[in-house]
Amino acid sequence: MTERKTKLTIRGLTKRYGAATALDHVDLDLTDGEFLTMLGPSGSGKTTLLWSVAGLNHPDGGKIWIDGRDATSVPASGRDIGMVFQNYALFPHLSVSENISFPLEMRKVSPRDRSLAITRALEMVKLEHVGDRFCDQLSGGQQQRIALARAFVANPSIILMDEPLGALDKKLRDHLQLEIKRLHERLGMTVLYVTHDQEEAMVMSDRICLMNQGRIEQIGTPDELYFQPKSLFAADFLGEANLIPSRITGEEAGCLIVELLGMGTVRTRSTPPRPNGPNVVHFTRPESIAIQADAENKANRLYGHVSEVVVSGAITKLFVHVGDALMKISLLTSVSQRVREGERITIGWDDDVGRVLSRSQKEAA
Predict the structure, then answer these.
(1) Cα distance between residue 284 and residue 170, in whole Å
(2) Domains of the chain with CATH codes
(3) Less CB within 10 Å around the terminal CB: N or C of the chain?
């Protein structure tokens, strides 16, 4: 298999605003055709990084290479990028076709080639019938699709997207997530995407770069970040998690023996690096836990009482008191219908679905 070339390289990127550090010596690589999402809470540095790549702000330190060329001091117009903003950033006095044509005109593409490219772009976003309209005559979803068409019409090296779906309602947002993903796969675009929406990042991305306080907390595939978090922050930020104060008491046959304080002892398959010291936090996802007969063949089994049952359509959440702790369990509603509040149940999980995290949030096993 041919190794993909690197489209974007960032080394030691630093950006400060007064006394506040927005980016703290960030290193990042983006490969050709990859969809990489910058995910994190407000103020984590994800948009600052995107704008630095776009040339819309200048870093205080570090380097940015695009296609092997040092672009750190290159103006935005010379970086061969397409940009999609949350507020669309369309020109209201221009027609849809004229908006899409803008980056082609900047590149001095001939009128004939511009016309062909605009037609292809409108067909790609399934809006070939609106080319002569003005943008304020379109819905929010249509305007965002026009912004997408404008971003990729000139076939830029990298497309940057800054919370492009943030202003849309959930139904339309879900639809456009899949539409953007299909466009990415069809065109082989290289995309650097920013969002604070965890579900959006999980659905769309080849890899996710989780940001926290100006640094990369963890980077990997959606599955890696979700099921193999390397810190308490990563475990807690993505989805729901059971995080139980614990203590490592030994090791046996490749598994750590872990005392869940106030609950009991379980086995967790050890994955390096191992946290320093015995005092840790034990992590499981609610959907990784089985109940009753399905729990009997699991490596780890505990017993508790159901304190609450919450049905939300196809998924039912159980809150189970086990000793001094409260465990969250997510099940298909059809599986959980036999469980009642106050009932004593068996819960269990395999030794390879738990994870031991350092209380200092720096290491995991």
Answers:
(1) 28
(2) 6-232 (3.40.50.300), 233-358 (2.40.50.100)
(3) N
